[in-house]
Structure to design on (434 residues):
DNA sequence: CGCATAATACGACTATAGTCTTATGCGACC
DNA sequence: GGTCGCATAAGACTATAGTCGTATTATGCG
């Protein structure tokens, strides 16, 4: 039995995906999640053969979420579903370990083709874009690897750093001492090959689709 | 006599623009610049009726360059020429004070139309995109205004901050004391309504098209 | 079990960031 | 000639960032 997890924060779009897939590929079992936490929970408790991941989910932090999932479950194939058509971003998504990119404007036929292709072990990109995205961004791939090597605590600290929080505030949010936050910060610097917070924020902001202030969808 | 300045770092594309314009609008006088510094020099020494600005010029720092030029020469109309088709970015470009956006894929007819329209005092956008870009990003517009209010020295310091440099290193680069750098940094914080360097870097990174590490062409 | 390793946690210490005050020189502007 | 904005910068101070050493716990492995 082949099981597929649809992770998207829009119930309507989940329904649309479910409808399109149950028609074209009725043999699939479909599961759903609406945020990153429940996505991780389901991946932990169930055997999932393919994850359809929307980058804009609550708690996902866009590309961070993809890297996070890829690190926790390297054996689960991931296809990213997103409204963007930015080829550079798609290149980053593929460099971060996604096996396919499905634009939200794709037809149900294309979606079914994409899912079938990835289940068969292929890589899938929208036909009109496959030319411009074929090459992998080496530099970004290394960056994604470095970020993936962060421990869960370090990952959280980096997220808060990217939001402009002080060490003290991060400690308060995570309920740990400021000294511990600093230890995590130092560890992050070593793993990312940098030596101060501004450079960390720059790297973290490269992993984000939209500026925090204007997330509007 | 109407004079037009073509600012683009690709000699070939400058030639192409020159060719397209001299055919369709032979009454124009055309001038060229290959980087931001010489663009500013020419705007200082000559009367320019329209600037065609590529965002990816050396020293331009993408949107920073546009804001910089808009601040120094608020009376010179600017049309941005760029390879991107990202509607969000185009919206930012227009919010930062450009009067037109010309994609590099535009036909020579469209380019001539755009130049003529802006010279006539209109705003011009590619026909296929004008629907999705009509609204101005208020938040970003305010941000651009704030950045435009920076003095030249403050602007330079912010650029170096965005590159992850320490105050000491910025002082060395600009040949001023660290105390002066700190004074500028404090002034920048007040103008941008923030209170630490991380937030400044976040704002600065929103004004950049591509991450510094992956500028490729 | 005994050992190694990684992750988390934290205090002590040093370096850097950031504020405030004050002061000087310069050019623009009326 | 006075005023204003800007750039420069010193000194003194506080807050925050960042390093280092170390203790604790959990996890994997033979």
């Amino acid at each position: 039995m082949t099981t597929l997890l649809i992770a998207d924060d829009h119930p309507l779009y989940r329904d649309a995906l479910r409808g399109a897939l149950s028609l074209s590929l009725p043999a699939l079992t479909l599961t759903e999640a609406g945020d990153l936490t429940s996505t991780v929970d389901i991946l932990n408790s169930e055997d999932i053969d393919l994850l359809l991941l929307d980058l804009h989910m609550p708690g996902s932090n866009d590309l961070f979420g993809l890297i996070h999932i890829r690190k926790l479950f390297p054996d689960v194939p991931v296809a990213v579903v997103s409204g963007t058509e930015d080829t550079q971003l798609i290149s980053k998504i593929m460099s971060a370990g996604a096996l396919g990119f499905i634009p939200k404007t794709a037809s149900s036929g294309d979606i079914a083709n994409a899912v079938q292709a990835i289940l068969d072990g292929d890589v899938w990109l929208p036909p009109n874009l496959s030319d411009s995205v074929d090459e992998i961004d080496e530099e970004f791939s290394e960056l994604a690897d470095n970020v993936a090597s962060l421990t869960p605590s370090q990952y959280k600290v980096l997220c808060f750093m990217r939001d402009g929080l002080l060490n003290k505030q991060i400690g308060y949010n995570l309920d740990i001492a400021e000294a511990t936050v600093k230890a995590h910060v130092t560890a992050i610097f070593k793993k990312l090959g940098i030596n101060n917070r501004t450079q960390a924020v720059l790297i973290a902001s490269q992993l984000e689709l939209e500026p925090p202030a204007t997330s509007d969808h």
Q: What stands out?
A: The longest helix of chain A spans residues 178-192. Confidence is low (pLDDT under 50) at residues 211-217 of chain A. Residues 3-133 of chain A form a domain with the Rossmann fold fold (CATH 3.40.50.2300). Residues 171 and 178 of chain A are 5 Å apart (CA to CA).
